Amino acid sequence: MQHIIDLAQRQGYVTAAQVSDLGRASHTLGRLVADGRLVRASRGIYLPPASRFRPQTHALLVRATLDDDPFAVASHHSALALHGIALFDVDWGQVHLLDARTSSRIRDHRHWHVLRAADQVVEVDGYRVAGVPLALAQVAAQFGITAGLVAIDDALHRGCCTRDDVASVLASGRLRRGVVAARRAVELADERTESPGESRLRWILSNSPWHFEIQANVGGPGAGYRVDHLVEGRLVVEFDGAVKYDGPAGRSALLAEKAREDWIRERGFGFLRVVWSELDHPAQVQRRISRTLLQTPLRLP
């Protein structure tokens, strides 16, 4: 059984078909799960216990699913997971696939869609996946504006495609549902966005009456300080991911950020930080911004 564990550790997963090909009985996997040496992710797919973080686990599920079917093509967020695009608020437990041999259907952890002749299919690490523009349009249409905006922003930031590429998919009539939401996500997308938290915060600001600028330069040493969002020309609103303060360089980054914030405040700007957990409560974030704006005096040109 150690060979099965080694295989799971090496490729990140093991399937029932692979165990059968190795000549082991089907109950072998059940024993390994009972011993805590494997975790059942879905029917016929097993992961090492450490492989439970959702985005990485989903990518493993996609690879395992495609290993069992060389004719299938990963689509939606399943394709983007293999492309390495940031994802948020998608169904991690369900693998989406394109296949010319079947109609749309759902079975176990798999959601099949019809592969059409015009669909762009590319290879990523030997696996067939939908092209980035099609997969982005699918995610925005299937899971809504926020999920679409996070993915599109990251794809644009990485240079994987352009906004027009995604808009062309939507204009082609390839998708029948969720097109309005997907178009809105494309309109809001911005390649200057550097994290999913910034994307989510921008969506909250987009649903407010305030004017705001993205990645505005407020001056400062050297080329000046860029801020995530400058609201009404006087309030800096930034997403604080906190992770940048981790590790050996974390203290230096924290001190540099403190000096930056002090400089901005001394010039008369208001300053507000928003953390990830607050983004789940858009109305509360908007109230915080409103209160801080009222406390921040107008700045002279």
TrEMBL record:
<dbReference type="Pfam" id="PF13338">
    <property type="entry name" value="AbiEi_4"/>
</dbReference>
<feature type="domain" description="AbiEi antitoxin N-terminal">
    <location>
        <begin position="4"/>
        <end position="49"/>
    </location>
</feature>
<dbReference type="InterPro" id="IPR025159">
    <property type="entry name" value="AbiEi_N"/>
</dbReference>
<protein>
    <submittedName>
        <fullName>Type IV toxin-antitoxin system AbiEi family antitoxin domain-containing protein</fullName>
    </submittedName>
</protein>
